[in-house]
Amino acid sequence: MAEVESLLHKFGQDAQRIEDSVLIGCSEQHEAWFALDLGLNSSFSTHASLPKSEVETELQGSFIELRKAIFQLNSMDSSLLFTAQALLRWHDGHQFCSKSGQPTRKNIAGSKRVCPSNNIIYYPQMAPVVITLVSDGTRCLLARQSSFPKGMYSALAGFCDIGENMEEAVRREVAEEVGLEVENMQFSASQHWPFPNSSLMIACHATVKPGQTEIQVNLRELEAAAWFSYDEIATALRKKGTYIQQQNEAFPFLLPPKLAIAHQLIQEWVEKQTCASLPA
Question: Which residues form the Nudix hydrolase domain (predicted)?
Answer without folding.
Answer: 124-250
